[in-house]
Design a protein that fits this description.
Elements: E1 14-17, H1 32-43, E2 47-51, H2 56-63, E3 71-74, E4 79-81, E5 87-90, H3 98-106, E6 111-116, E7 119-122, H4 128-136, E8 141-142, E9 153-159, H5 162-175, E10 180-186, E11 189-194, H6 199-210, E12 217-221, H7 224-232, E13 235-238, H8 244-247, E14 252-253, H9 261-270
Parallel strand pairs: 1-2, 1-12, 2-3, 7-8, 12-13, 13-14
Antiparallel strand pairs: 3-4, 4-5, 6-7, 6-9, 9-11, 10-11
Helix pairs in contact: 1-9, 3-5, 6-7
């Protein structure tokens, strides 16, 4: 682990972080060590921003009784919330993309679901429904996607084998290149959002609301959907458990989530 030596830490007013695989381990648990380190820095005036693929309610519930983030970039950048849960921005899937997404999703052996507000909806039952309900702490609703025309959908999510998801990604790139962006949050999870939506874009909007900038921000992440954000901020840090392609794309790498990599990097950087 190497921290920046030619940087004044006081210039970094904002700390942005992914959740799963970054501050949450495989059991979706937050280490007390990480939570306490974040609270120390918050007490010193640093602003803590969550940047996650989860919806606001799921993120808030998961972090309850640990620390209180100052803002949330949720649903992979599709919706952003201020310190008291005030909505800053929403970015919905284009209506004309829904028939394409429905058709592609039904062709593949995956759990295909979408988010409308805080509710997640799936088209066809799969045993993966039970897995995802446990992961999010939220019950899904089964509904025919053909009935969702006109709804404000924040994102689609496909869960399945990496091979299946890569095929879906290619199909969507060919069928809706100007409407959608796709990014992996895990090798078995493909996030689908409106064109131009990302954690980077969401973080920029969030920072403008808070009166800050990317140049004043350090960010942590472990997956492809974190990469744009990590490359855009002043100090981008990949987790030790991140794929090699993520680690080699950013200037700094810390210890793994199981070894409290976020806390260890922050303590050395800020001298706490």
């Amino acid at each position: 682990m190497t921290v920046p030596k030619n940087l004044n830490p006081s210039e970094l007013r904002f700390i942005a972080m992914d959740m799963d695989g970054t501050i949450l381990d495989e059991g979706y648990q937050l280490s007390p060590y990480v939570a306490n380190t974040l609270k120390k820095l918050q007490n010193q005036g640093k602003k803590l921003i969550i940047a996650t693929g989860r919806v606001y309610t799921a993120a808030k519930i998961t972090l309850a009784n640990s620390f209180e983030p100052d803002a949330f970039v949720c649903t992979n950048g599709a919706d952003i919330f201020g310190p008291d849960g005030t909505a800053i921005a929403y970015h919905h899937i284009p209506v004309e993309a829904l028939p394409i997404l429905t058709e592609v999703g039904r062709r593949h052996d995956v759990l295909f679901c979408c988010y409308i507000g805080e509710q997640w909806i799936y088209d066809r039952y799969s045993p993966l429904v039970d897995f995802y309900e446990k992961r999010t702490g939220m019950k899904g609703i089964q509904k025919d996607f053909d009935s969702l025309i006109g709804e404000d959908i924040l994102k689609f999510l496909a869960i399945g084998s990496n091979e299946e998801l890569l095929e879906m990604r290619e199909e969507l790139a060919n069928l809706a290149p100007d409407l959608l962006d796709t990014v992996f949050s895990h090798e078995t999870m493909l996030e689908i959002v409106a064109r131009g939506v990302s954690k980077r874009q969401g973080l920029e909007e969030c920072l403008r609301y808070l009166g800050g900038s990317l140049e004043e921000t350090i960010a942590f992440g472990d997956a492809e959907n974190d990469l744009e954000m990590l490359k855009a901020v002043k100090v981008g840090v990949a987790m030790g458990n991140a794929h090699t392609s993520i680690q080699t794309a950013v200037p700094y790498v810390t210890a793994s989530v199981d070894d409290d990599g976020v806390a260890r990097f922050l303590e050395e950087l800020f001298g706490i």
